[in-house]
């Protein structure tokens, strides 16, 4: 047999993504105080604008972070959007409105880039002009423009004088990580990541974040269109059915999720079945290995993410899951995707499924294969990373009553590992349950999970067909 084993290893803490590094850097800009009334859309012209830069250097206590919410939000546990109002000023160019489109592209690197903030705003005092808002981290005075920008401004006779445009930032203008960083105690980790399952955002909050859990949930829902429920896992997956308890942090109490993955739609109760959206690529990769006419035995089928796509490719599929809820939604999804006539479904223990329906059907396939010239492949999928490898002992008896079989199955067996060498660890454990060596008979594909608190993931593939006598 050929075996494919999915193993895992944790991300090193030292590895940070680009976005994480950006969040860790405090980008600040210096402005001298300007006397003005802070109303949305008001601007203040300063003829000798270079003086602003000089004054701010001389007065470092005036340093401010434009995109840091007001200090008043620190420690709040109930979201109050009004507390996030903040008066800020941005540098701006005054440009004739007929020239805006001509200079926008050349000046895109110095224009403001902020969700919810318009780059071009009206001049309330002169309808023939517009203000182009600039990035304060790049432009502080007329001398800040580079050679390219200066040439464009000169070409279109645009005055380089910098105006200060003043307006009120609100809750809607801040990013979720900025909001939570300002609310949680200084120096504590901020969680804005989540797994999306249909309309549900699934979070794994840490202990120090729990006092702010409802605020965090509301922020996540506000800042992510289409999310109408935010939940937090409150225990680990340690039961037979691989589901977990969860609490609703924000939004509606509706856990019936509708998910579209690889052009196939699934429905299920997220509180009663296991679904990991991060495995979408891996599921698609395995399905891509299949071809029409192949035989697929899905031992831990869940709600059908392997079985249904396989049936769509005109494979013969037998799908099983022990969880009655998963079995119910598996049948539902087969009907919804119009493959219920192509899939046999079972509600059995995995070992009973292997030693029962799979063993019987495998004997039939062996007889049929002997009569075919263009032989198809047999795949056994075992996607239960926490336990699947322990079910490999069933294969020692699977073929004991059969004669020599030319086309042995390929077994896709998933597992976790916390070892520094996950491939070797998984191979060693697989050999233990199979009671035979797999040396030289496997290839390994590792996939790292992004959640640092979980194991990372990978795939071990056993390439050469094992001699039947090894089993």
Give an overview of the whole structure.
This protein is of the alpha/beta class and 471 residues long. 24% of the residues lie in helices and 21% in strands. It is built from twelve helices and 19 strands. The protein has helices at 18-24, 50-58, 100-104, 147-155, 176-183, 213-223, 280-288, 307-312, 324-336, 350-369, 395-398, 422-434; strands spanning 2-7, 42-45, 86-96, 120-122, 129-133, 163-169, 195-197, 200-203, 229-233, 246-251, 256-261, 264-269, 295-298, 316-320, 343-346, 378-382, 410-414, 442-447, 457-462. It is elongated, with a radius of gyration of 30 Å.
What is this structure, in a nutshell?
With 471 residues, the protein is α/β, with parallel strands linked by helices. Helix content is 24%, strand content 21%. The protein is built from twelve helices and 19 strands.
What key phrases describe this protein's structure?
471 residues; alpha/beta; five-stranded antiparallel β-sheet; 12 helices; 19 strands; disordered C terminus
Structural class, by secondary structure, is: alpha/beta
**3D shape:** elongated
What portion of the residues fall into strands of 2 or more residues?
15-25%
Biggest β-sheet: strands ordered side by side in the sheet: 15-14-13-16-17-1-19-18
Low-confidence stretches: 6-64, 450-471
Distance between the termini: 9 Å
Helix content: 10-25%
Q: Roughly how many Å is the radius of gyration?
A: 30 Å
The count of helical stretches stands at 12
List the helices and strands and how they pair.
Blueprint: E1 2-7, H1 18-24, E2 42-45, H2 50-58, E3 86-96, H3 100-104, E4 120-122, E5 129-133, H4 147-155, E6 163-169, H5 176-183, E7 195-197, E8 200-203, H6 213-223, E9 229-233, E10 246-251, E11 256-261, E12 264-269, H7 280-288, E13 295-298, H8 307-312, E14 316-320, H9 324-336, E15 343-346, H10 350-369, E16 378-382, H11 395-398, E17 410-414, H12 422-434, E18 442-447, E19 457-462
Parallel strand pairs: 1-17, 8-9, 13-14, 13-16, 14-15, 16-17
Antiparallel strand pairs: 1-19, 2-6, 3-5, 3-6, 4-5, 7-8, 9-10, 11-12, 18-19
